[in-house]
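User: Please predict the structure of the protein below. I'd like the answer in structure-token form so I can feed it into my own downstream comparison script.

Assistant: Understood. Taking the following sequence of 435 residues as input:
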Amino acid sequence: MREYLSIISGFLLPVLQLLIIQRYITTLFGSGSRKLTGMIGWLLYYAFLVTAGFGILFPPQFLLVGNILMVFMINTVTRKESLKRHCISTLLICTVWMLVEVIVLLALEAVGTDKCVIDVAGSFISKMCMLLFSVLLGRYAKKKQYAEIPLRYFIITLLVPASSSYMMHHIFLMTALYAEYSFFSVVAGILLLLINYVIFTVYDRVGQAAELQSRNRLYEQQLDLCSHQAEEREGYYLELRRMRHDMKNHLSGILGMVNAGQTKEAGDYIQKMLDDGIGTGSDEISHTGNIVVDSLVNHKYALAQKDGIRFEARIFIPSVLPFQSGHLAIIFGNLLENALEACRKLPQEQRYIILEATYIKEMLQICIKNGSPEKLKKDSSGRYLTTKEDNGWHGIGLASVEQALADYNGELFTKYEHGEFRVSAVLYSNSIEKN
């Protein structure tokens, strides 16, 4: 048994330890470079672990110092970060690993494990715990750009390392009593560690795939909004051409009246043109001069009129804003579409939308209030769930708004009270240069 366990601790377990450390570094700093210096660094670390495992290179009291130096070296050659961040991450990894090993050994002693297998079983189980902790750290890391996986699936995933640790403990206990199972314990331990590593890797890939799918849907939505914006601009262009053509005819008629001395008729004609509102549309409620905002608001206003929804708009913004047109389209388009969706489920007398938008001191504030049939449900991350059947497509409205706001350090606030849903968005133009 000791021969097999010596082989594991000397050659195979260091490989798993390097894989786990690689997960931690990736979680903290993201994917690194695969340059030759990085590969040499990992090989040197592996050689250190192998020689340290056989007690050739370092006495046990210097093993911790050697690990700290090696992890710091790996951090430095594979990631371009500040020296301060390298030091903090190195101490974090090594300290947590040492703490986990101490806790595991104390737990094994507490349950009465045979001392001859505590070191080996503790090595396996501590690596399992560190692998699990890397997944937890990756899930709650602030900069992790993975989609949120349902909590029930995450809990099911956590059962894998828990059951594996239980199995490892009893396997090594069995080996302590029956030496003929030594080879089985070696193979079982290695396989369980590899299975857990693969499962957690698949877990990460699922999160990445979900995030990619969400982004693809967001891009499709952006294309739809941009397409609608292009149609609106084309409509404005055609309307401008019609106005120029009609104005030419009007001016020709007025000129004829003036040349004929019919000044009173010419004045009446001009007054009639002013009363009719030349160049204005009856279905327009926004006249800021900002093509993106005006086209979207007026389009949603026309849809509200068809559905019998009272729509009020108080928009006080300049014609030119320091924000990307695509982001404005996403924010106004999604928020107004959500309001229309909620109002369509209400009786006629309860349908209303109130839009307010102001730009003061380099800050754009958007507030929309609308009638809502009921308090909407939220998911585990606090986002409101869509009430449409096709939730795969429609459930990303507020998420896309939050993503657009993030580029300007913006904020999104939602509140439901007494049958009214209120959403407010704030964008800061002075944060654009800092980003």
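That's the full token string. Strands lie at 310-316, 352-360, 363-371, 411-417, 420-428.
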